[in-house]
User: What shape does this take?
Amino acid sequence: MITEEDLWYFKTTGFYKVRETLPGDLVDRLNEVTSRQIADMREPIVWEEKVEREPKNVRRLSKIFLRDPVYFEAASHPIILNALEGIIGPNIEVLTNKHNHVMVRPSGSYPVPWHAGEEPYDHTLITGLIYLEESTVENGCVRIVPGSHNRPFLNPRRPQKQRDNFYDSDNYYRAVPIPMPRGGVLLFNDCCYHGSDTNHSDHSRRSMTVAYRAHDAHDVIKDDPEKILVRGEKVYTGHPHPYTLPVQE
Ligand SMILES: O=C(O)CCC(=O)C(=O)O
Assistant: This one.
Protein backbone atom coordinates (compact mmCIF):
# COMPACT_ATOMS: atom_id res chain seq x y z
CA MET A 1 0.00 0.00 0.00
CA ILE A 2 1.19 3.50 -0.62
CA THR A 3 1.57 5.92 2.27
CA GLU A 4 -0.28 9.24 2.71
CA GLU A 5 2.98 10.98 1.88
CA ASP A 6 3.37 8.93 -1.35
CA LEU A 7 -0.18 9.87 -2.29
CA TRP A 8 0.51 13.56 -1.74
CA TYR A 9 3.54 13.38 -4.03
CA PHE A 10 1.55 11.42 -6.61
CA LYS A 11 -1.20 14.06 -6.57
CA THR A 12 1.36 16.86 -6.82
CA THR A 13 3.80 15.47 -9.38
CA GLY A 14 1.46 13.07 -11.20
CA PHE A 15 3.66 9.97 -10.93
CA TYR A 16 4.60 7.21 -8.51
CA LYS A 17 7.44 4.74 -8.83
CA VAL A 18 6.40 1.45 -7.19
CA ARG A 19 9.10 0.30 -4.75
CA GLU A 20 8.83 -3.45 -5.37
CA THR A 21 9.64 -5.06 -8.70
CA LEU A 22 7.70 -7.88 -10.36
CA PRO A 23 9.07 -11.42 -9.80
CA GLY A 24 11.97 -12.30 -12.10
CA ASP A 25 10.29 -15.46 -13.48
CA LEU A 26 7.24 -13.45 -14.57
CA VAL A 27 9.46 -10.91 -16.34
CA ASP A 28 11.33 -13.82 -18.01
CA ARG A 29 8.03 -15.22 -19.31
CA LEU A 30 6.96 -11.78 -20.55
CA ASN A 31 10.22 -11.51 -22.47
CA GLU A 32 9.99 -15.03 -23.92
CA VAL A 33 6.46 -14.39 -25.23
CA THR A 34 7.42 -10.94 -26.51
CA SER A 35 10.49 -12.30 -28.34
CA ARG A 36 8.28 -14.90 -30.06
CA GLN A 37 5.70 -12.28 -31.06
CA ILE A 38 8.47 -10.11 -32.53
CA ALA A 39 10.15 -13.02 -34.35
CA ASP A 40 6.78 -14.07 -35.83
CA MET A 41 5.93 -10.42 -36.61
CA ARG A 42 2.46 -11.04 -35.20
CA GLU A 43 0.15 -8.11 -36.08
CA PRO A 44 -1.16 -5.64 -35.00
CA ILE A 45 2.24 -3.94 -34.99
CA VAL A 46 3.40 -0.33 -35.15
CA TRP A 47 6.55 -0.29 -37.27
CA GLU A 48 9.62 1.94 -36.95
CA GLU A 49 9.82 2.02 -40.76
CA LYS A 50 6.67 1.03 -42.63
CA VAL A 51 8.65 -0.05 -45.69
CA GLU A 52 10.96 -2.46 -43.85
CA ARG A 53 8.73 -4.96 -42.06
CA GLU A 54 11.23 -7.13 -40.22
CA PRO A 55 11.64 -8.07 -36.54
CA LYS A 56 14.31 -5.42 -35.87
CA ASN A 57 11.82 -2.75 -36.93
CA VAL A 58 9.00 -3.67 -34.55
CA ARG A 59 8.34 -0.51 -32.53
CA ARG A 60 5.17 -1.56 -30.74
CA LEU A 61 3.04 -4.71 -30.32
CA SER A 62 -0.62 -3.70 -29.96
CA LYS A 63 -3.53 -5.56 -28.30
CA ILE A 64 -1.32 -7.60 -26.00
CA PHE A 65 -4.15 -9.01 -23.88
CA LEU A 66 -5.30 -11.00 -26.93
CA ARG A 67 -1.80 -12.35 -27.57
CA ASP A 68 -0.95 -14.30 -24.41
CA PRO A 69 -2.38 -14.53 -20.84
CA VAL A 70 1.03 -13.63 -19.34
CA TYR A 71 0.43 -9.95 -20.18
CA PHE A 72 -2.80 -9.89 -18.18
CA GLU A 73 -1.09 -11.78 -15.34
CA ALA A 74 1.47 -8.96 -15.15
CA ALA A 75 -1.10 -6.17 -15.51
CA SER A 76 -3.19 -7.57 -12.62
CA HIS A 77 -0.27 -8.43 -10.33
CA PRO A 78 -0.96 -7.59 -6.64
CA ILE A 79 2.16 -5.38 -6.46
CA ILE A 80 0.52 -3.05 -8.99
CA LEU A 81 -3.06 -3.34 -7.72
CA ASN A 82 -2.00 -2.64 -4.11
CA ALA A 83 -0.38 0.62 -5.21
CA LEU A 84 -3.32 1.54 -7.44
CA GLU A 85 -5.81 0.88 -4.67
CA GLY A 86 -4.15 3.63 -2.64
CA ILE A 87 -4.62 6.04 -5.56
CA ILE A 88 -7.97 5.22 -7.19
CA GLY A 89 -9.72 3.11 -4.54
CA PRO A 90 -10.75 -0.52 -4.32
CA ASN A 91 -12.67 -0.99 -7.59
CA ILE A 92 -10.10 -1.12 -10.38
CA GLU A 93 -10.53 -1.81 -14.06
CA VAL A 94 -8.08 -2.41 -16.89
CA LEU A 95 -9.12 -0.86 -20.19
CA THR A 96 -8.63 -2.92 -23.31
CA ASN A 97 -9.31 -0.04 -25.70
CA LYS A 98 -6.54 2.24 -24.41
CA HIS A 99 -2.78 1.45 -24.37
CA ASN A 100 -2.80 -2.38 -24.12
CA HIS A 101 0.58 -2.61 -25.88
CA VAL A 102 4.27 -3.42 -25.49
CA MET A 103 6.74 -0.74 -26.52
CA VAL A 104 9.66 -2.67 -28.01
CA ARG A 105 11.75 0.42 -28.82
CA PRO A 106 14.49 -1.36 -30.82
CA SER A 107 17.98 0.09 -31.08
CA GLY A 108 17.78 3.46 -32.85
CA SER A 109 14.02 3.70 -32.21
CA TYR A 110 12.89 7.27 -32.87
CA PRO A 111 11.41 9.30 -29.96
CA VAL A 112 7.93 9.09 -28.56
CA PRO A 113 6.82 12.68 -29.13
CA TRP A 114 5.63 14.75 -26.18
CA HIS A 115 2.00 14.12 -25.44
CA ALA A 116 -0.57 13.81 -22.67
CA GLY A 117 -2.80 10.77 -22.96
CA GLU A 118 -5.97 12.42 -21.65
CA GLU A 119 -7.48 15.88 -21.31
CA PRO A 120 -7.00 17.18 -17.75
CA TYR A 121 -10.76 17.27 -17.16
CA ASP A 122 -11.29 13.58 -17.95
CA HIS A 123 -11.97 10.88 -15.35
CA THR A 124 -8.51 10.08 -13.93
CA LEU A 125 -6.80 7.45 -15.99
CA ILE A 126 -3.63 5.93 -14.58
CA THR A 127 -1.04 4.63 -17.00
CA GLY A 128 1.07 1.73 -15.76
CA LEU A 129 4.44 1.16 -17.42
CA ILE A 130 5.72 -2.33 -16.61
CA TYR A 131 9.37 -2.81 -17.55
CA LEU A 132 10.46 -6.01 -19.30
CA GLU A 133 13.97 -4.56 -19.61
CA GLU A 134 15.94 -1.90 -17.77
CA SER A 135 15.17 1.60 -18.97
CA THR A 136 17.94 4.20 -18.90
CA VAL A 137 18.60 7.70 -20.20
CA GLU A 138 20.71 6.12 -22.97
CA ASN A 139 17.96 3.80 -24.21
CA GLY A 140 15.28 6.48 -24.14
CA CYS A 141 13.54 6.20 -20.75
CA VAL A 142 10.25 7.97 -20.32
CA ARG A 143 10.36 11.62 -19.21
CA ILE A 144 7.44 13.18 -17.37
CA VAL A 145 6.60 16.84 -16.79
CA PRO A 146 5.82 16.85 -13.04
CA GLY A 147 2.58 18.62 -12.18
CA SER A 148 1.44 18.92 -15.79
CA HIS A 149 -1.74 16.93 -15.00
CA ASN A 150 -2.89 20.00 -13.02
CA ARG A 151 -2.29 22.53 -15.80
CA PRO A 152 -5.00 25.21 -15.78
CA PHE A 153 -4.48 26.12 -19.47
CA LEU A 154 -5.92 24.21 -22.41
CA ASN A 155 -2.74 23.37 -24.31
CA PRO A 156 -3.09 20.72 -26.99
CA ARG A 157 -2.78 17.19 -25.68
CA ARG A 158 -0.45 16.28 -28.57
CA PRO A 159 1.72 19.34 -29.24
CA GLN A 160 4.10 17.36 -31.51
CA LYS A 161 3.76 15.23 -34.61
CA GLN A 162 5.25 11.72 -34.86
CA ARG A 163 8.79 12.62 -36.11
CA ASP A 164 9.18 16.12 -34.59
CA ASN A 165 12.44 16.98 -32.81
CA PHE A 166 12.12 15.62 -29.27
CA TYR A 167 14.19 18.48 -27.83
CA ASP A 168 12.23 21.17 -29.63
CA SER A 169 9.58 21.48 -26.93
CA ASP A 170 9.14 23.37 -23.66
CA ASN A 171 8.20 19.97 -22.23
CA TYR A 172 11.78 18.76 -22.67
CA TYR A 173 13.08 21.50 -20.33
CA ARG A 174 10.34 20.95 -17.76
CA ALA A 175 10.51 17.15 -17.64
CA VAL A 176 12.43 14.72 -15.46
CA PRO A 177 13.83 11.45 -16.88
CA ILE A 178 12.62 8.36 -15.03
CA PRO A 179 15.06 5.44 -15.38
CA MET A 180 13.49 2.16 -14.26
CA PRO A 181 14.84 -1.31 -13.37
CA ARG A 182 13.81 -4.55 -15.11
CA GLY A 183 10.52 -5.63 -13.52
CA GLY A 184 9.86 -2.08 -12.28
CA VAL A 185 6.43 -0.45 -12.39
CA LEU A 186 5.79 3.25 -12.97
CA LEU A 187 2.29 4.65 -12.44
CA PHE A 188 1.35 8.11 -13.65
CA ASN A 189 -1.68 10.28 -14.20
CA ASP A 190 -2.21 10.02 -17.94
CA CYS A 191 -2.97 13.75 -18.15
CA CYS A 192 0.77 14.41 -17.52
CA TYR A 193 2.84 15.37 -20.54
CA HIS A 194 5.36 12.63 -21.24
CA GLY A 195 7.56 11.37 -24.01
CA SER A 196 10.74 9.42 -24.56
CA ASP A 197 13.91 10.05 -26.52
CA THR A 198 15.56 8.01 -29.28
CA ASN A 199 16.94 4.68 -28.08
CA HIS A 200 20.68 5.41 -28.41
CA SER A 201 21.78 1.97 -27.18
CA ASP A 202 22.25 -1.14 -29.31
CA HIS A 203 19.51 -3.11 -27.47
CA SER A 204 15.75 -2.89 -27.32
CA ARG A 205 13.98 -1.26 -24.38
CA ARG A 206 10.78 -3.16 -23.74
CA SER A 207 7.91 -2.05 -21.53
CA MET A 208 4.19 -2.80 -21.33
CA THR A 209 1.72 0.08 -21.24
CA VAL A 210 -1.55 -0.54 -19.40
CA ALA A 211 -4.51 1.76 -18.71
CA TYR A 212 -6.22 1.59 -15.28
CA ARG A 213 -9.30 3.41 -14.09
CA ALA A 214 -11.54 3.38 -11.06
CA HIS A 215 -14.79 1.63 -11.87
CA ASP A 216 -17.36 4.31 -12.63
CA ALA A 217 -19.95 3.84 -9.90
CA HIS A 218 -22.45 5.98 -11.84
CA ASP A 219 -22.46 3.81 -14.95
CA VAL A 220 -25.68 1.82 -15.22
CA ILE A 221 -24.38 -0.59 -17.86
CA LYS A 222 -21.92 -2.85 -16.15
CA ASP A 223 -20.96 -5.29 -18.89
CA ASP A 224 -18.71 -3.04 -20.99
CA PRO A 225 -16.47 -5.53 -22.87
CA GLU A 226 -13.59 -3.03 -22.99
CA LYS A 227 -13.25 -2.84 -19.18
CA ILE A 228 -12.03 -5.77 -17.12
CA LEU A 229 -12.48 -5.63 -13.35
CA VAL A 230 -9.18 -6.64 -11.75
CA ARG A 231 -10.01 -5.83 -8.13
CA GLY A 232 -13.11 -5.00 -6.09
CA GLU A 233 -16.65 -4.88 -7.47
CA LYS A 234 -18.84 -3.01 -9.93
CA VAL A 235 -20.87 -1.04 -7.43
CA TYR A 236 -23.67 1.34 -8.54
CA THR A 237 -24.18 4.52 -6.53
CA GLY A 238 -26.08 6.68 -9.04
CA HIS A 239 -29.67 7.83 -8.70
CA PRO A 240 -31.94 5.53 -10.67
CA HIS A 241 -33.58 6.79 -13.84
CA PRO A 242 -36.43 7.54 -14.24
CA TYR A 243 -36.26 9.10 -10.80
CA THR A 244 -39.15 8.01 -8.62
CA LEU A 245 -40.28 10.57 -6.07
CA PRO A 246 -40.84 9.29 -2.55
CA VAL A 247 -44.53 8.51 -2.01
CA GLN A 248 -46.26 11.42 -0.17
CA GLU A 249 -48.25 10.44 2.92
O1 LIG B 1 8.01 4.59 -22.45
C1 LIG B 1 7.80 5.12 -23.53
O2 LIG B 1 8.56 5.02 -24.46
C2 LIG B 1 6.55 5.96 -23.70
C3 LIG B 1 5.33 5.15 -23.38
C4 LIG B 1 4.09 5.83 -23.85
O3 LIG B 1 3.95 7.02 -23.84
C5 LIG B 1 3.02 4.96 -24.33
O4 LIG B 1 3.20 3.73 -24.41
O5 LIG B 1 1.93 5.50 -24.67
Summary: The chain has a mean pLDDT of 94. The CA atoms of residues 48 and 212 lie 27 Å apart.
